[in-house]
Amino acid sequence: MRSNDVIIQTATKAVVFIILLFAIYIFFAGHYSPGGGFVGGLLAAGALVLLMLAFDIETVNRIIPVDYVQIAAAGLLISLGTAAASILFGVPFFTHAHTYVYLPLLGKTSFHSATLFDLGVFLVVVGVTMIIIQTIGEDE
Amino acid sequence: MIIFFWISLILVSLSVVGLLIRLIKGPTVPDRVVALDAIGISLISIVALLSLIFETEFFLEIILLMSILAFIGTAAFAKFLERGEVFDRRSDR
Q: How far is residue A41's CA from residue B45's CA, in Å, rounded to a whole number?
């Protein structure tokens, strides 16, 4: 039986971008308000899962041709590298550096090294979640 | 006005209890899926009412996140009930 899935495919084409934008927002909001790399990664993985639901695994692998094992490994490398870089400056492991800069449009903006660590967490969560989902989905 | 919010919170929480009965007893799988989706919507309303009671806006992102997760979960359950599998290997066209 060939079922009709035009509604979920049309809705997905709009909703995926909203979810990805919200994931990026909640990733950057994570320092002073609820959010962070873990929830952002879960939301980005949720957007990819929604794409796989509406279409199929081979189409998603064709339009996003990345190896999620490498994504998870790169995220782990970024996180550990950020944590270990504080040793080079003579301060303890995991020390948090921050500064304030004045950007043209945004005004006073705070830069934190915790954002780089969170970026690594984001990539690890996306990679591991998609590896799990793909392993479950490929049951043939 | 705060009394109104508390009464609404109690009513929505009681409806969650009723939905839990349907989720556990439900004769068929679609009953359980609809109950689970309605529990998600009720949780979203509970968080919205709590953010009104506490007069904070930190919960608004949680409302959006829970609604996104409820949407994905409901879509996955609906596709599983319709076709018997969640992820297609390839589209059959």
A: 25
